[in-house]
Amino acid sequence: MARVWRWQRAAPLLLAVLALASSAQALFVIEKGALKIKFPRGAAQAHRDGFDVSMANFGSPKYGGELIGKLVYPDKEHGHPNDCKPDCNFACQNFSSASPPFKLNHQAEPGQRTNYIMLVDRGPHRDDMQACKFAEKVWNAQEAGAQGVIVVNYEDKLTTMEAPDDQDEVSYKYLRNITIPAVFIKKTEGQVLKDLLKPELEDVYVVMDWNDVLPRADKVNWEFWTNSNDMCGAVCNVQREFIKEYKHVARELEGNWTEFTPHYIVWVCPEAYRDSEECKSQCIHKGRYCTPDPDGDLTAGYSGADIVQENLRQLCVFKLANQSGQPWQWWDYVTRFANECKMSEQNYNEECAEKVFNELHGNEWSSLSALRECIGDVTQDADNPLMEVEMKRQRGGGDTGEVYILPTIRINNGQYRGKLSVTEVMRALCAAFVKGKEPPACLKVKEDECRPGSVGDSVCAANKHGKTKCQNTFNGYECVCGPGYVTQTTKDGKLRCLNVNECKTLDAADLGRDCTCPRCACQDVPGSYKCISDLKDECAEDHGGCWRQDFTVSGEKKLFHACQDNIEIYKGNIVIFEVR
Ligand SMILES: *[C@@H]1O[C@H](CO)[C@@H](O)[C@H](O)[C@H]1NC(C)=O
Ligand SMILES: *[C@@H]1O[C@H](CO)[C@@H](O)[C@H](O)[C@H]1NC(C)=O
Ligand SMILES: *[C@@H]1O[C@H](CO)[C@@H](O)[C@H](O)[C@H]1NC(C)=O
Ligand SMILES: *[C@@H]1O[C@H](CO)[C@@H](O)[C@H](O)[C@H]1NC(C)=O
């Protein structure tokens, strides 16, 4: 069997993966992203539709976004006379130990850095050289300063670049630290890119685009395929970590925004072996639903049946929690179960599970008897409806791929690719909402495009119509009415910014003495106001040179003059400044 069950060390006898047992055409869907040439323009036009690339199952794809970068191919022929073994273009070596060291952006000031997308080759595909892992190439490229990687195949096929399994200790160490995206391209199309770089006349820029990788919906449906086995090394730890962190997000998103379902992969025991020791130990419901023995030893430790039974319990916890309108209880249950009920502490069992259920006040949002009833008699020679649903979902069908690896995430029926971490998964979930309808929580996982000095910040600040404030949206940024303006909706539904006359709307105390003293005035300006203090009384001296004359009124001498203090003009400022 070519497929690797990464989380499972021992491949036990007899159990068959459901999909393989039931159909020879199990569907494995390759998730495609898009890659386009941006410059040179001639090449961009010649390849207007871009290239199909497949996304790696590790790293950080920028779901909902894109990455523009200068293409670099670290090959001897292309301007980098580095001594690498094997050749630089395979990226199998640490670039800093090449001579001379190969480093992108090493001299650039922050803010003047170029994004580099590194082109590397799969392989080496040669008998005399050992090929290195995809993840290793990507890690080396990242360490050399690349923001993205394109791996070129040695044949005209696409495949999904998988993460190395946890038995490969070395690569597993850096796997979690890969923070850049990687895609895979067919040989011929990779050659097109290499040929563009050859003349070294023009810089080549490409765009990696993840905008339309996942189907979009108003409410995002997603599935997380997991397993309650807690003895599968680093892969299990990563799953546990993810669940523990995601449970906070679940409370925010579940219900109103997303609809989540947990799933558990199921193995089956072939009919003829239902009475064998293997199937008795690894299955429930007389061989119908199985999980391989966690330690590969049927006679010792926990058995496969223990795991399937807990998987079924967790499915029931979800069912009950969801029915009560509190689907997030599943995340809490699973986190606690993993913390408190461990194989290593010999309490991975029903008693501990029910204790956790009670600690989560299961009897308030459901009941222990409902939980037991949902699980039913696991020795029964009959189907269990929940497990049947699992088997059906696992097989996929239509456009939905088969689940063949754990952990797997499906979002709106599309397969998620990338590492299992809250930020990455959230970014993908956010990219599966109809554009502009993302929940506010999505802003947490996007880059700040409004930070001081950024394009968003300066574009908005330069706006003449009051929309001076940069505001992040999941898909970029927008300019909204800045401080000192109010948003008004016009008759035709457009938003415009109206200047606020602070001189009239603010209290004297807020305006301050510089605006309100006897010889001070407040002047409204677009978006703000100005205080004019120490206004000189032009009439004080010689009445400003205006007409004046003494008259005797009722026997008293009085001075009459035609000088009017200009302060009245300022104090009476009533200019309402409108901005269209
Ligand atoms: C790269 O190789 C050099 C020399 O072998 C070593 O000192 C350095 O730690 C390595 N860097 C990484 C990131 O592995
Ligand atoms: C990965 O990141 C962690 C946390 O930042 C760090 O402790 C660890 O050394 C990194 N591993 C490698 C191989 O760089
Ligand atoms: C869902 O929306 C309703 C109504 O807008 C609100 O009362 C409720 O608190 C929201 N639930 C969550 C989990 O945010
Ligand atoms: C969870 O509850 C919602 C709302 O009641 C329902 O639409 C959905 O089908 C339920 N999901 C599952 C897997 O039962």
Automatic annotation (TrEMBL):
InterPro entries: EGF-like_Ca-bd_dom (IPR001881), EGF_Ca-bd_CS (IPR018097), PA_dom_sf (IPR046450), PA_domain (IPR003137), VSR_TRX (IPR056858). Residues 1-26 form the signal peptide. GO terms for molecular function: calcium ion binding. Pfam families: PA (PF02225), VSR_TRX (PF25011). It is a single-pass type I membrane protein. Keywords: Calcium, Cytoplasmic vesicle, Disulfide bond, EGF-like domain, Glycoprotein, Golgi apparatus, Membrane, Protein transport, Repeat, Signal, Transmembrane, Transmembrane helix, Transport. One of its GO terms (cellular component) is Golgi membrane. GO terms for biological process: protein transport. Residues 446-498, 499-564 form the EGF-like calcium-binding domain. It comes from the Eukaryota. It is found in: Cytoplasmic vesicle, Clathrin-coated vesicle membrane; Golgi apparatus membrane; Prevacuolar compartment membrane. SMART domains: EGF_CA. Belongs to the VSR (BP-80) family. This is EGF-like calcium-binding domain-containing protein. It comes from Elliptochloris bilobata.
